Amino acid sequence: MEKTEATTIEISESSRERKGKAPLLAAAVAHDRAASGYKRGVAIFDLILRISAATAALAATITMGTTEQTLPFFTQFFQFQASYDDLPTFTFFVIAMAIVTGYLVLSVPFSIVCIVRPVAAGPRLLLILCDTLTVTLATSAAGASAAIVYLAHNGNSDANWLAICQQFNDFCQRTSGAVVAAFVAAVLLIFLVVLSAVALKRR
Amino acid sequence: MEKTEATTIEISESSRERKGKAPLLAAAVAHDRAASGYKRGVAIFDLILRISAATAALAATITMGTTEQTLPFFTQFFQFQASYDDLPTFTFFVIAMAIVTGYLVLSVPFSIVCIVRPVAAGPRLLLILCDTLTVTLATSAAGASAAIVYLAHNGNSDANWLAICQQFNDFCQRTSGAVVAAFVAAVLLIFLVVLSAVALKRR
Known about the structure:
Chain A is mainly alpha-helical and 203 residues long. Chain A has helices at residues 2-14, 22-65, 88-116, 122-154, 169-201, and strands spanning 68-74, 79-83. Chain A has 5 helices and 2 strands, in the order ααββααα. In chain A, α2 runs antiparallel to α5 and α3 (88-116) packs antiparallel against α4 (122-154). Chain A starts with a helix and ends with a helix.
């Protein structure tokens, strides 16, 4: 800000033959153009990260949502079967990651607006606010499911909770994969927030 | 940005009797002062939120860290006892919330720098980056522990995990309280990120 002011003053003093108003505007336009090129690059990177995060979130949702396993043996009374909605945490995971995916897809137009009009701070501020909320949602879903997946793998002797992964091996594999995908989406979202903050700073 | 430019031009044209350089600087200084007053208010609010979040995180750490319960009866072979380190998730919770508390306390000087020099964007950008990472840590700890606390309260018949809160009632109460405090700290951290983003925008 101060640097720009100094530049405009120097220009208007060195070119006395001109009106003095045009160089001021010209310098401002030149500064805006330089900032706009930098910001356009950031906005394009933002769009790429956003689409990657949406893909990861979608993969996590679908992997968890379609997970079920039926064991090949059954007793007289019931058949052993595991699906994601047996555990409330996994249901929360599916709902939360579906919301994250939906938000990321819906935010793509705003990201494109930031590419077309790189200097506009409004859409960027909107994106950083919503991204912060979304990163929290994704992280809480991933963290909660990670705790349950750990329990399913290892069990807990103190609480007398047995590991269920010996029986439901395929089920455990798939839920672990979904949790990893959710963490990837969360890390990409953190980068999105950081990127938006850096873009907001360099005006 | 454009508005400031327009103001400075008008002033330098309306006061032809003066050198033309002074009003330009005066307008810039006036604009800086207005922005600085606004930013100082935001920075003070930031400091208050930060101390509240540190208190909540410290409360969560201490509550979880000091939780243990010994049941008043015992069998011939062992005594029933529950403490936070029986469950790896709760150990993660204590470590993560201790890191969050430490970061929040250490970030107070940077927040004070933002009050003293409100226009400086460097410390504010540093704070928003670290706050984003911290909010993720706090949320994942809170989410993971919430999943385990839910399981301790309700159990899960499909995985054959029994609720342990009938026996360890006091233990469950305290861990639930710690999780709630962690969520409060996470929400305050979200506000901190949003506040910093808004302050970065209004330059």
